[in-house]
Amino acid sequence: MARSKVPAAEGTLRILSHLAVQRGPVPASAIATALGLPRSTVYDLLAVLADQGFVLHLPEERRYGLGVAAFELSSGFSRQQPLSHLGRPLIAALVDRIGESAHLVVLHGRDVVYLIEERAPRRPSLVTDVGVRLPSHLTASGRALLAALPTAQLRALYPNAAAFAARDGQGPRTSGELRRLLERVRADGFAQEDGEITAGMASVAVAVRDHAGWPAAGIAVTFPRERIAPAEWPALAAELAGTAAELSRRIRGRPAGA
């Protein structure tokens, strides 16, 4: 790593990035050790961050976590819809290459919300228009996102059978069925859905991960079932994975090849 001309700024950003990937508040000493920074420096930077609301200090536990101001930054990110702006040209290019319709989604509770839908020429209309919400466990893109979540978060989303919305009797109906389905997604490296949303249509999807490895979005291609044989779906998923990797780089502000 090149030496920063503004070490305090670099240290501050490293602390915030470190806190963002922790499961909960952590001691200052653990932050210093993880980042290789002097404890005195870490305490000074944490004090400034806490004063500005970006870090929350829990004095009884002697731990630090992200504060409300950090959450407001995240909300600002969502309001500006950077995923839509960054993803649209990539999804359009993907559709041009493969000749099938594609879309970009984000996870919202137990649903996926469609941010982008790019329809290929001479392909049928889909139910996945921009703004549409569908149960994530029924869609390929939702399954790709769910497969990337920690077990505890997945259990919180689907605590019992009542959490499983049905669509014409399709899809998993219990936590066990969902767990086995997601195990297959992880083993294959991509998710699929075959006629569970629209009869005769199938989808293949992959997750887009953020800087911390968390699923930020899902990219899926939807096509008439008879046009692409299941044996070709892994190659199609590999094409999606390239688009997902580029969008991941752009989310993190990194140019292609960085």
TrEMBL record:
Q: Which InterPro entries match?
A: ArsR-like_HTH, GAF-like_dom_sf, HTH_MetabolicPath_Reg, Tscrpt_reg_IclR_C, Tscrpt_reg_IclR_N, WH-like_DNA-bd_sf, WH_DNA-bd_sf
Q: Where is the IclR-ED domain?
A: 69-253
Which CDD domains does the entry link to?
A: HTH_ARSR
GO biological process annotations for this chain's record? negative regulation of DNA-templated transcription
Question: Would the keyword DNA-binding be found if you checked this record's keyword annotation?
Answer: yes
Give the source's domain of life in one word: Bacteria
Task: Provide the GO MF annotations for this entry.
Answer: DNA binding; DNA-binding transcription factor activity
Q: Which Gene3D superfamilies match?
A: 3.30.450.40, Winged helix-like DNA-binding domain superfamily/Winged helix DNA-binding domain
Q: Which Pfam families match?
A: HTH_IclR, IclR_C
Query: Which part of the chain is the HTH iclR-type domain?
Result: 6-68
Which controlled-vocabulary keywords does the entry list?
DNA-binding, Transcription, Transcription regulation
- Protein's recorded name: IclR family transcriptional regulator
